[in-house]
Design a protein that fits this description.
Largest interface: A-B, 33 and 44 residues
CATH topology of chain B: Rossmann fold
Helix content of chain B: 25-40%
CATH class of the largest domain in chain A: Alpha Beta
Number of helices of chain A: 25
CATH topology of the largest domain in chain A: TIM Barrel
InterPro entries (chain B): SAM-dependent_MTases_sf, SAM_dep_MeTrfase_SAV2177_type
Strand content of chain B: 5-15%
Protein name (chain B): S-adenosyl methyltransferase
Protein name (chain A): Diguanylate cyclase/phosphodiesterase with PAS/PAC sensor(S)
Distance between the termini of chain B: 45 Å
Radius of gyration of chain B: 18 Å
CATH architecture of chain B: 3-Layer(aba) Sandwich
Number of strands of chain B: 8
Number of helices of chain B: 10
Number of domains of chain B: 1
Distance between the termini of chain A: 182 Å
CATH superfamily of chain B: Vaccinia Virus protein VP39
Oligomer: heterodimer
Strand order of the largest sheet of chain A: 13-14-16-17-18-19-20-21
Helix content of chain A: 40-55%
CATH architecture of the largest domain in chain A: Alpha-Beta Barrel
InterPro entries (chain A): Biofilm_reg_signaling (IPR052155), EAL_dom (IPR001633), EAL_sf (IPR035919), GGDEF_dom (IPR000160), Nucleotide_cyclase (IPR029787), PAC (IPR001610), PAS (IPR000014), PAS-assoc_C (IPR000700)
Bound molecules: S-adenosylmethionine
CATH class of chain B: Alpha Beta
Structural class of chain B: alpha/beta
CATH superfamily of the largest domain in chain A: EAL domain
Pfam families (chain A): EAL, GGDEF, PAS_9
Chain lengths: ~700, ~270
């Protein structure tokens, strides 16, 4: 160990530490430098003298990473200044030159090593840069390949366009979807893909996206395919921005939903169309009708009309020829309807069964719809050939046409339905026009018939009596019982307002029975009060009553209960009630007649009586209809024909042993003439209007 | 494109200074380019003592690794490892135990490429390019998993790197994620630029400004902030201290300037 080397090494360490990083502790550095110092010292004194160790030390400094810029300078300086003195080596010329030589060699070795190290590190870092770039590129290529694969293989259509809308790329799925190649697509601008059915939204959002105001949106959009077909799609358009956030590209993802769309359409079509005729069904019709009312612009000054149509006698065809023929008939009718009313704003729908409806939107007047109805009726005139049958059909049509203002879809439907019923009731094979007055009447009728049963229970009915006067001596021999209804709402109602209704509903039977009882009670009272001069009561018997199997029993019971001798009761029947009947009612009449009840034919002469048959009937009295009396009314002159008819009827009646009552006697001249002709009894205003029983009492007491 | 996929590295632009290469230059290395040296020198002009600060940091790394080896740790996860240069972690570790395992992680692609070429023949050492702010992708990396045995203690090193992670990136959460994946007895070693409020000289502030603008934004943290970042760990003596005070090799290494050294160091143990 060379004395002083340790001290020198410490000084050396202090001089060089802190100019570059050396991975050693301070002590390790000092140790390292001391060993270098020892090498130096040996070299200084060695024989033969060699500079190589100096060179080597320079290199080892660099190796230990003493690479700071000051390191070499400080080292060389320190060697020159301190080494020889620290080591106690005499400074002579030989030593000085040896030291210089070692200093030079160390500097050269250091410079060489540092240069090599620097170059090596530069080389290494450049290689690392290349490696890193390679890596980045590989990764980028891999990522691009992945994206490319995603783009090409995607089942969803993807397209990319620049911000001007120029199409840059489209994937296979989109090419297949639209039927254009990439090259063809590149000729297009996004705006060329506009479809007339696009909602305004699609393109408004597009403008916002292009402007950078929104980043993506979804829409439903149709495209034209290359082959002219249409594609329904779900479209998602997204904006791609550059590093500065400026809009750069747009990416479209397009999913083909055509099948779903068509299926939906088909399902919707099926839900809204009649499978038999292919016509719109009730649901679609109601939807369209609703839309007429909800259309923009409100209902002001717009009109619409409906024809509600029903085949006449379709049930018969169906029942006799079978449903198959019936169905084919409906198909043909549907076809003809559709054919005859096609056009904008018109809709033919099958409502079910053999009912069809035609909606005419924006009609100018009622005549428009009437024309439609006429056309339809005409169209149906030609016979329809089905399976060897030649069928003739007709239809009844109810027409409603009016301004939309003030009405509703439900009103239109209801009124058309009612009107169809009128057309049927009026004789079929025709149209009827809705008429509010008629409707009001029918409503009233309906109300009456609906309230009648309750009215009977509440005693709203009462009976008036009109005298039947013997023309020979002007004595009241009988009275006709006439039922009235004191209606709480409509006031006093004459029989013509409700008897027919009661016939229809069947209420006539209890009502008639009630009248019969009332009249018999009254007759009984008169009998008690007026004895022999008491009048008989003449009670009308409706057709339905005359066919009531209980009739005879009812009459008998009432007579019994009132203790009224049968000849105080006369039953009036119309000609048709008697003539047109089968045996059974006749049996009843015979039984009544046998019982002693008088039977009269009311309104005689208005029907088509079989006069010959008359003689076999259990009838006692003919009441000649008031219409024959008109010609006999005037004071000065009489109608010869009327006079002749009445006279003939009287002779006929008398020949058959029947009495004759003339109805509708209004003037003294009539009364006189009728008496002269031979009528037995008169009835009419000339004698008395129908009145309360008390009025009859009065008459019986005081005479006419 | 809005966001580059994670597996595609960033651009490699030699005109842009890199944290790793600037640092290498300061250490006396030549793994750098003109642009790196220019900024490095400009920063040095503002703060001449910066070179010593940097060297001190690198010696701290050595001291800490050696201490961890003494504590028995044989696995190291060096986050923000920089360009391999004199005194790399694996060299320090292998001097003691050639079977020690080391993973280097850096987001600088060049640093990692260099690391890979140096380490190619070493079986227990790998370099991974990743962002340390994404612990899941670091810990989940198959190469990392092949080197580190997470059933054994690991020393996570964050030497001169946490100050590149602003609070907005939740450094606390990042640290927690790493430690949660490790067994008790693992360590976290940290060195971090910083000081107490108002202590920073105009020169240092200027150097930091130049560096932040031209290389990478840096955050200074106070001792208290650092203590809270390491919350939940048992601090190894002497706790959170100025770098030179952390287990110096020799009293000579601690001069009067040590108390104002612009950075802290600490080693914590997962209980
Ligand atoms: C100043 S160097 C420190 C190198 C080494 N740890 C030392 O102390 O000697 C910081 C390194 O951290 C890296 N770095 C910074 N932020 C990072 C991040 N978020 N993820 C990965 N590396 C990062 C930089 O690329 C640089 O190489």
């Amino acid at each position: 160990m060379v004395a002083g080397a340790e001290a020198f090494a410490r000084t050396w360490a202090t001089a060089v530490i802190g100019s570059s990083y050396v991975p050693m502790t301070r002590a390790e550095v000092a140790e390292h430098l001391q060993s270098l110092t020892e090498v130096l010292v040996e070299a200084l004194i060695a024989d033969p003298f060699r500079t190589a160790p100096g060179y080597d030390i320079g290199a080892r400094l660099v190796e230990a990473h003493f690479t700071g810029t000051d390191t070499l300078g400080r080292t060389v300086q320190l060697l020159g200044d301190d080494l020889l003195t620290e080591l106690g080596i005499g400074v002579d010329g030989r030593m000085e030159s040896r030291l210089s030589a070692l200093q030079g060699a160390l500097a050269a070795g250091y410079a060489r090593a540092l240069r090599e190290r620097t170059l090596a590190e530069q080389e290494a870092i450049r290689a690392a840069v290349l490696d890193a770039r390679d890596q980045a590129e590989t990764a980028l290529r891999a990522s691009e390949a992945r994206f490319r694969a995603m783009f090409t293989e995607a089942a969803i259509g993807i397209g990319i366009a620049d911000i001007e809308g120029r199409i840059l790329d489209v994937n296979q799925a989109l090419q297949d979807m639209l039927g254009f190649s990439v090259e063809e697509m590149r000729q297009y601008n996004i705006r060329d893909l506009m479809h007339p059915e696009d909602s305004g939204n699609v393109w408004r959002l597009y403008d916002q996206l292009i402007a950078g105001d929104c980043d993506h949106y979804r829409a439903e959009k149709r495209f034209h395919r290359a082959d002219g077909e249409q594609v329904w799609t779900h479209l998602t358009l997204s904006l791609v921005r550059d590093d500065h956030g400026e809009p750069q590209y747009q990416v479209a993802m397009i999913e083909d939903v055509t099948d779903r769309h068509l299926l939906q359409n088909r399902l919707r079509y099926q839900a809204l169309h009649d499978p038999l005729t292919g016509l719109p069904n009730r649901a679609l019709f109601l939807e369209r009708l609703g839309r007429v009312f909800n259309a923009v612009g409100g209902t002001t000054s717009r009109r619409a009309g409906l024809c509600y149509l029903d085949l006449d006698g379709f049930k018969v065809i169906n029942d006799s020829l079978g449903h198959d023929i019936g169905d084919q008939l409906l198909v043909e009718v549907g076809r003809r309807l559709d054919h005859s009313v096609s056009g904008d704003g018109k809709l033919v729908a099958r409502m079910g069964g053999d009912e069809f409806v035609i909606l005419v939107e924006g009609s100018a007047s009622t005549q428009d719809i009437v024309n439609v109805a006429d056309r339809v009726l005409h169209e149906l005139e030609a016979p329809i050939k089905i399976g060897g049958h030649e069928l003739t059909v007709s239809a009844s049509i109810g027409i409603v046409e009016r301004p939309l203002e003030g009405t509703t879809a439900a009103d239109l439907m209801r009124d058309a339905d009612i009107t169809l019923y009128w057309a049927k009731a009026d004789g079929k094979s025709r149209w009827a026009l809705y008429n509010p007055e008629r409707n009001a009447r029918e409503v009233a009728r309906f109300t009456l018939s609906a309230t009648m049963p309750a009215a009977l229970e509440r005693d709203e009915f009462y009976v008036d009596y009109q005298p039947l006067v013997r023309l020979a001596d002007s004595r009241v021999t009988g009275v006709e019982a006439l039922v009235r209804w004191q209606h709480p709402e409509f006031g006093r109602l004459a029989p013509d307002r409700f008897i027919e209704l009661a016939e229809e509903t069947g209420l006539i039977v209890p009502l008639g029975r009630w009248v019969l009882r009332k009249a018999c009670e009254e007759a009984r009272r008169w009998l008690e009060e007026f004895g022999d001069s008491a009048p008989f009561v003449s009670v009308n018997l409706a057709v339905r009553q005359s066919r009531d199997p209980e009739l005879v029993r009812d009459v008998k019971r009432i007579l019994d209960e009132c203790a009224l001798p049968p000849h105080h009761l006369q039953l009036e029947l119309t000609e048709s009630a008697i003539m047109g009947t089968a045996d059974e009612p006749l049996e009843a009449l015979r039984a009544l007649s046998d019982m002693g009840v008088r039977i009269a034919i009311d309104d005689f002469g208005t029907g088509y009586s079989n006069l010959a048959y008359l003689k076999h009937l259990p009838v006692h009295e003919l009441k000649i209809a008031g219409s024959f009396m008109e010609g006999l009314r005037a004071a000065d002159e009489e109608d010869a024909v009327d006079a002749q008819i009445v006279s003939t009827l009287v002779q006929l009646a008398h020949a058959l042993g029947l009495g004759v009552t003339a109805e509708g006697v209004e003037t003294p001249s009539q009364a006189k003439r009728l008496h002269r002709i031979g009528c037995d009894t008169g009835q009419g205003w000339f004698f008395a209007r129908p009145g309360r029983p008390e009025d009859i009492d009065h008459l019986l007491r005081g005479g006419l | 494109m809005a966001e580059r996929p994670k597996w595609v590295p960033g651009d490699i632009d030699l005109e842009r200074p890199s944290v790793a290469r600037v640092y290498d230059y300061w250490l006396g290395g030549a793994h750098n380019f003109a642009a790196d040296r220019a900024v490095a020198n400009r920063t040095l002009e503002a703060m001449p003592e910066l070179r010593r600060v940097i060297l001190t940091n690198r010696t701290l790394l050595r001291r800490m690794v050696r201490h961890l080896l003494r504590l028995g740790v044989r696995q190291f996860l060096d986050l923000g490892s920089g360009i391999p240069t004199a005194g790399n972690v694996h060299e320090i570790a292998h001097a003691v135990d050639p079977t020690a395992r080391v993973v280097y992680v850096d987001m600088d692609p060049v640093a990692i490429a260099h690391g890979k070429s140096l380490l190619a023949d070493l079986p227990n050492v790998v370099a991974l390019q990743a962002d340390i702010r994404d612990p899941a992708s670091v810990l989940g990396d198959p190469e990392v998993r092949s080197v580190l045995d997470l059933d054994q203690p690991v020393a996570v090193l964050m030497i001169a790197v946490l100050h590149f992670v602003p609070d907005a990136d939740h450094p606390c959460g990042i640290i927690a994620d790493y430690l949660d994946a490790l067994v008790p007895g693992s360590y976290l070693g940290v060195s971090h630029s910083g000081g107490e409020q108002g202590e920073e000289s105009a020169a240092v502030a200027e150097a930091r400004r130049r560096y932040s603008e031209q290389v990478a934004p840096m955050v200074h943290r106070t001792r208290a902030e650092l203590i809270s970042l390491l919350g939940g760990l048992e601090l190894v003596e002497p706790g959170v201290v100025r770098l030179p005070h952390w287990r110096p090799d020799s009293p000579d290494d601690v001069d009067e300037s040590a108390d104002r050294f612009p950075g802290f160091a600490a080693l914590g143990r997962k209980p």
